[in-house]
From TrEMBL, chain A:
Molecular function as annotated in GO: 2 iron, 2 sulfur cluster binding; dioxygenase activity; iron ion binding
Cross-referenced PROSITE patterns: RIESKE, RING_HYDROXYL_ALPHA
Stretches of the chain forming a coiled coil according to its record: none
Residue span(s) of domain Rieske: 58-168
Protein name according to UniProt: Ethylbenzene dioxygenase alpha subunit
InterPro entries attached to this UniProt entry: ARHD_Rieske_2Fe_2S, RHO_NdoB-like_C, Rieske_2Fe-2S, Rieske_2Fe-2S_sf, Ring_hydroxy_dOase_asu_C_dom, Rng_hydr_dOase-A
UniProt keyword Flavoprotein, yes or no: no
UniProt family annotation: Belongs to the bacterial ring-hydroxylating dioxygenase alpha subunit family.
Keywords associated with the record: 2Fe-2S, Aromatic hydrocarbons catabolism, Dioxygenase, Iron, Iron-sulfur, Metal-binding, NAD, Oxidoreductase
Residue ranges of the TM segments: none
Pfam families, per database record: Rieske, Ring_hydroxyl_A
TrEMBL record, chain B:
CDD domains xref list: ring_hydroxylating_dioxygenases_beta
Gene3D superfamilies membership: 3.10.450.50
Tree of life domain: Bacteria
SUPFAM superfamilies for the chain: NTF2-like
UniProt name for this protein: Ethylbenzene dioxygenase beta subunit
Length: 456, 178
């Protein structure tokens, strides 16, 4: 069971490299301490590419981005460029965006509709199912006995979706998506199943580069509402004329919840996040919707639909309810990320409300957004200070909210009292550590026990 | 992309051309000097200030690189611009303190008659260089298409479309106007 990954048929991997030693010395989560090396060390980063990004289920597209056969988006799984393509039978497949001939990139567009993908180098042509169909000067290959059926685009190992969100993994041994998300699906439904029409992505993708380690972004969204009251003071004053709500004063009405390293911090004010867009139509829409969501999903989740909250799906996709930004932090070396952001809305929302969200999301959470503008610099310098040899030997604090675990809420997952907490961040790094230590999925300890059916 | 782009290109007299160039150069200086309110005063009440993001699509894809209902770094009316300016002015705008140094370079100004009297279609190129703290330097280059309206003895900007060359913004933020 506990072996290094089996190699996929056409992906001959070198045997898994020696893993970085003494990772356990890098964190003492019990006492809320962790090393800065995890944000700086190149070997650790290379191991993350193998054991986090080539292993976990990663968000790759929303169903609504590729409605018709041949529709595709180009995205990343770690640093691996992949094409996510709608098939003629309505299913979705994913392929590495690289030609199995001499390795050139096959598709240079970010998105579009294709009948085939033709490589620019020597003209190998692939169907939308990834199969090698033909090529320029094909007789030369026939004479050499090339087996076309064995030279299609490399498929991702598994692909599946939950409530419109498509995920893929590059590891054939990965557990099912339902197991990977586990009880976290209960909370995901509050946003992606609050309305019977489900959600859609609108308005395209805004992309930018931040010179920070990817985990600073992920850990921020997994549980750090604390920073909002300070970092985003200027953005809140700009949008609503006053400071961010003082959530630290109301721990009884808010939670940290996590499962398998995914985490969500939230309170129950229904519209706290949405209010920062400063748009009345959006507020009205949410208030009218809330009682219907209560009927559909119960009282608690109906109060999450636009509340002060944030969420990260381990390892590197995050979203904000209410502001309706969904984003993936693609790693680009230990010191950089490429940020891709989208706007999501309920498919059944009126067009005017969708338009207001598309605008509001970009006004607040895009590189020019009045909130996001102040995040990047924090993460860049939390990363860059560690170039100092002595600096990076000073550990960091991650100890908020010890002894806040709640066991009597009846809610799924690990539940903690109070939104101002670092419980989710600790759970995120525990999951990170478990994956980094394990030579294969079979060796990853199952700390969280699911209560929900794993067949979604 | 916009209606103004399809108008016949009827040139204006040299004096109008000169006055509009001066107007744009002054606008750039106001931004370099962080004179946000003075800059805002150059925007008409009905301003549409738009900077779409660029998608890489095949030439055959009729949807093109950008559109009004897709991604944008700015898609602003007067209220939106006012909100952005009010963030810049907050003492807690941490990413502006110490101040960023801006250089807005405007060139290649072409002026044509607008659809209505007193309106002008103005094309220009921009280079924007931002330097922050020790070594944060960001460069953006692109082209603008403005609709200007004569107001008193000056002008106001009624529409601005900003097209940048980057599809992935190679910076942590965009803390200026272009
Ligand atoms: S590298 Fe693609 S056809 Fe040769
Ligand atoms: Fe933030």
């Amino acid at each position: 069971m506990c072996n290094a990954n089996d190699t996929q048929p056409r992906l001959k991997r070198r045997p898994v490299g020696r893993s970085v030693e003494h990772l356990e010395q890098l964190m003492d989560l019990e006492h809320g301490r962790m090393s800065r090396d995890v944000f700086w060390d190149r070997d650790i980063y290379e191991q993350e590419l193998e054991r986090i990004f080539a292993r976990c289920w990663l968000f790759v597209a929303h169903e609504s981005q590729i409605p018709k056969a041949g529709d595709y988006v180009s995205t990343y799984m770690g640093e691996d460029n992949v094409l996510i393509v709608r098939q003629k039978d309505g299913s979705v497949r994913g392929f590495l965006n690289t030609c199995p001939h001499r390795g050139n990139k096959v598709c240079f567009a970010d998105l579009g509709n294709a009948r085939q993908f033709v490589c620019n180098y020597h003209g190998w042509a692939f169907g939308i199912d990834g199969a090698l169909k033909g090529m320029h000067a094909s007789s030369a290959y026939e004479e050499s006995g090339l087996d076309k059926s064995a030279h299609g685009l490399h498929p991702v190992a598994q692909i599946d979706s939950y409530r419109g969100l498509i995920f893929a993994t590059l590891d054939p041994q990965a557990p099912s998506l339902a197991e990977y998300l586990g009880d976290f699906r209960y909370y995901l439904d509050a946003i992606f199943d609050m309305d019977e029409g489900g959600t859609e992505f609108i308005g395209g993708c805004v992309k930018s580069v931040i010179q920070c380690n990817w985990k600073f972004a992920s850990e921020n969204f997994v549980g750090d509402i604390l920073h909002a009251g300070w970092t985003h003071d200027s953005g809140a004053k700009a949008m609503v004329g006053g400071p961010v709500a003082e959530v630290h004063k109301f721990p009884e009405q808010s939670y940290h919840v996590n499962f398998n390293g995914h985490g969500w911090e939230f309170n129950q004010d229904i519209v706290g996040n949405a209010a920062t867009l400063g748009d009345k139509e959006i507020m009205k829409y949410l208030y009218v919707l809330q009682p219907k969501v209560a009927e559909r999903l119960g009282e608690l989740r109906s109060k999450m639909i636009g509340a002060i909250s944030s969420c990260t799906l381990f390892p590197n996709s995050s979203f904000l309810p209410g502001q309706n930004t969904f984003r993936t932090w693609h790693p680009r070396g230990p010191g950089a990320i490429e940020l891709h952001t989208w706007t999501f809305v309920n498919r059944n929302a009126p067009q005017a409300v969708k338009d207001a969200w598309r605008k509001g999301t970009m006004m607040t959470f895009s590189p020019s957004g009045v909130f996001e503008m102040d995040d990047g610099e924090n993460w860049e310098y939390s990363t860059r200070t560690n170039s100092g040899f002595v600096t990076r030997q000073q550990d960091l604090y991650l100890g908020l909210g010890h002894e806040t675990r709640l066991t009597d809420t009846g809610l799924p997952g690990n539940v903690y009292r109070g939104q101002i907490n670092e419980a989710n961040q600790r759970a995120f790094y525990q999951r990170w550590f478990d994956l980094m230590e394990a030579p294969s999925w079979g060796c990853v300890p199952q700390r969280d026990v699911a209560t929900m059916e794993v067949k979604a | 992309m916009s209606a103004v782009a399809r108008l016949p290109e009827i040139p204006v007299d040299a004096e109008t051309q000169r006055r509009i160039e001066q107007f744009l150069y002054r606008e750039a200086r106001l931004l370099d000097d962080e004179r946000w309110d003075d800059w805002l005063a150059l925007m008409a009440e009905d301003i549409h200030y738009w900077m779409p993001t660029m998608e890489n699509r095949r030439r055959a894809d009729k949807l093109g690189a950008y559109a009004l209902d897709r991604g944008a770094l700015y898609n602003d009316n007067r209220l939106d611009l006012t909100r952005r300016v009010s963030r810049f002015k907050q003492p807690s705008a941490w990413a502006e303190d110490p101040p960023t140094r801006h250089a807005h370079v405007i060139s290649g100004v072409e002026v044509y008659q607008g659809e209505r009297t007193g309106e002008y279609v103005v094309h220009s190129s921009f280079v924007n260089y931002r330097s922050r703290v020790e070594r944060d330097n960001d460069l953006l280059v692109g082209r603008r298409e403005d609709l200007l309206r004569a107001v008193g003895d000056s002008f106001q900007i009624v529409r601005r479309k900003i097209l940048m060359t980057q599809s992935v913004l190679m910076a942590k933020n965009l803390n200026t106007f272009l």
